Amino acid sequence: MPSFTLRARLRPQSGFTLVEMLVTMVVMGFVMGGLANIFISGSRASSDGQARLTSQENVSVALTRLEYDARCAATATLLNKSGSNGGGVYLTIPAWCTHSTGNVTWCVSSGKLVRYGGATTCTGTGVTLASSVTSATPFSCNTPAVTGALPQLVAALRVDSGGTSDATSVTDYITMHNDSTAACS
């Protein structure tokens, strides 16, 4: 019996060679590198999607607020004109409007859509409702060809929060419902 145990102890031990370990580590490095690349790409896609969603939400909130102001406005006067478009719009709102009172000015300046309460120009302290606006002159007037149709304020905004794939463009035709004397110029 002693010769059997001696042979078992002298038998070479099984294991991995250095070459096998190196090959395994190289293959695992490629696999892990590919997985890391997938996770990084997913993270970038998530960031891009979040930036796009934020832009869309900001534009939606801004246009909703602009609609509240413009629907009741007696007049809309384009400011900082370039052709038939303006970089801002001054709205005269009658006192009987319940949701908005006083005169307000909406302007795009320094890439921001800003609402100035009580102002007739694009200066002073205002509330920024959308940032990363790339439309320099987003406002224009539209008078439908239908007899008796009310004038419309057109807001064509383009917001780009991080690249061309994140750009959001929207055009809103806001009918001025004040009365038949409403004017947009």
H/E series: HHEEEEEEEEE
Which structural class matches the secondary elements?
alpha+beta
- Helix segment count? 2
Rounded to an integer in angstroms, the radius of gyration calculated over CA atoms is 32 Å
Describe the model.
- With 185 residues, the protein is an alpha+beta fold.
- The chain is rod-shaped.
- The chain has one domain (47-184).
- Strands 1, 2, 3, 4, 5, 6, 7, 8 and 9 form a 9-stranded mixed beta sheet that branches.
- The longest helix has 55 residues, at 18-72.
- The protein is built from 2 helices and 9 strands; from the N terminus they run H-H-E-E-E-E-E-E-E-E-E.
Quick rundown:
Helices cover 35% and strands 31% of the residues. It starts with a helix and ends with a strand.
Which helices and strands, and how do they pair?
Layout: H1 2-10, H2 18-72, E1 75-82, E2 85-92, E3 104-109, E4 112-117, E5 127-131, E6 139-142, E7 152-160, E8 167-175, E9 183-184
Parallel strand pairs: 1-9
Antiparallel strand pairs: 1-2, 2-3, 2-6, 3-4, 4-5, 6-7, 7-8
